[in-house]
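EI: anyone free to look at a 297-residue chain?
SC: sure, send it
EI:
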Amino acid sequence: MGKKYFGHFIAFVTVAIWGSTFVFTKMLLLNGLSPAQIFTLRFIIAYVLLLGFELAFRWSSFRLFSTSWRDELVMLLLGITGGSVYFLTENAAMLYTTATNTSLIVCSCPLFAMLLVALVYRQTERFTRVQVFGSLLACMGMAVVVLNGRFVLHLSPVGDMLAFGACLCWAVYSLLIKSVSERYSTFFITRKVFAYGLLTILPYYIIFPGFPSIEVIFSRDVIWNLLFLGVIASMVCFLVWNWVLHQLGTIVATNWVYFNPMTTILFAWWLLHEQITIWFLLGSMFIIVGMILSDRK
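SC: here you go
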């Protein structure tokens, strides 16, 4: 029981950190970096540090490839769904639709994850009505937090489809982790996600060439933000999130994504002095109650 509560605590901290990344990403965008360049640099930092750590402290269990080509294909799909395509579709969605639409669609990925798990593992994974109701209640709470009393959505087919693509990517990523977490270490899986995420982003630069100069990357306003995104938000958070998925299960762990808008608003209140509304409190209550119900067996 103690390990389970510890897993929930780690999940909350991870989502809270991911909720804060908008501040650091915004700073990099203001310094002229594109979303793809930010993704590439943060994944390079994360991969190099994780590789160095494994070579220094986990040499005896170090390996470059999976034991089978099928597992290696899963690692490739993890790099695509949790890395390159996920970040590209999410960031591109912001160019065509509103932040509200993007948040609502992307943060609804736990529902899609539940449907995928129920479909793929229908013989072993069965959800009670209480768990389903809890997930729906948490999703409704997330919507209340994001909409914040302004129930106006602006439909944009291109932007909304891109956001849905990001949502589906994260749901598939959460599902795929389940198939390999029993056979490979969290370090190995996370390193492969970074490696294949970087490899599969390369075609983007053929279409849209260009990269920031060394002077820009190592300027004070850029390097510290990149280090936070690369070391904390990428290397550390991906490591612990993959561990959380293994400990709590795909559905319970992925439901923590509903907390992402909450943490974003809290950071905006703390750092940008934005106001906390009654809608935020109401939606937060729904999310918390829904999380408790969805964790019941």
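EI: The chain has a mean pLDDT of 82.
SC: 👍
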